Amino acid sequence: MIIVYCIAQLSVNLFARLLTIWSRKPPIEEPFEVRIEESNLTPCLRSESPELPIGFKLSKEQLSMCKKLCQGRYGTVMEAQLSDQGTRQKVAVRVLKSSSGDKVLKASLEMVQTMAYLGQHLNLVNILGAVTKGLRNGELLVVVEYCQHGTLLNFLRRNKKNFIEQLSSNPLLTTSDDGPSCSTARPGGKVITYIDLLSWSKQIASAMSFLESYNVVHGHLALENVLLCDKKVVKIDKVGLLPAMTSGHSYVGVGEDFYPYKWLALECFSEREFTSKSDVWSFGVLLWELFTLGETPYAAMPNKDLYRKLDEGYRLDMPDNAFPEIHDMMRMCWYNRPYLRPTFQKLEEGLTAMLPKEITRVSEAD
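and the corresponding structure tokens:
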């Protein structure tokens, strides 16, 4: 009887495993359609002619373009001066190409409206307004905060030789205009400490917790989409740049530019669904980027092999510059089942607890 029972149990387990495999969707191929969980902002995004809050509509006459900062697939980012009520402010302006098409234009409008209704957060690249007068001709100018020091990824790569393994309180630790740093700066770059890495991790988790509270999905969280400002404040960029964060909307991703493969959660490959929990997975990869000082994850692994390896249980190793608590946090972000992953609120709390108390007090005072 025992043998019969064991055989029956094995048969049931085998059948369940086969059923899981048969029902699984094939890994992402290009182009692909993606479903994104419904946002709490759905009602204001479904308008045929989206409205912006008072003060967000700007005119071209208020902008004085200075120089081109970068060129993208759908437009250009310009440095500019914004004149508003007698004051002038340095800003960045995203100029959408008129040839981008209706789908991209609609997505960009929804992004502007989403961020306008969300309100501002210290660790997001906040939208200051938009020029919508040329919409009929496919023209849209989005005015955002100017971040002086570019991407955090490039900053880390430029200054990785100046990394100091400093975590505990130290007489050399000072607070300057650039934020907590070491007073014995090495020539040729900015000093980076463990405290900086933890502080940046906590700031990013704080911004993502804010988005999570509104059920807003970022969708492509990676270190290259985090910008660095004065006082070592970091801001997450490109929130909602991909079309629509509401159920029923879909978009086509061509190539790997829309969603970087190596930051995707397992369910993004298999189920093609993007949620706050898939953002948590991406945050784990971002932590790995931070504590490797800007290395590329899975650098030696071809994209075509990544899903299979992750599904088999492969995960990134602990970076040399990290410590076990941080690697444990990364691995929690990479649980196969999304519901087992922590919330961004829990991640923020955990990172805050790792920061020295004097740094936490300085941050709160700022």
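(Above: one complete record from the training split.) The radius of gyration is 22 Å.
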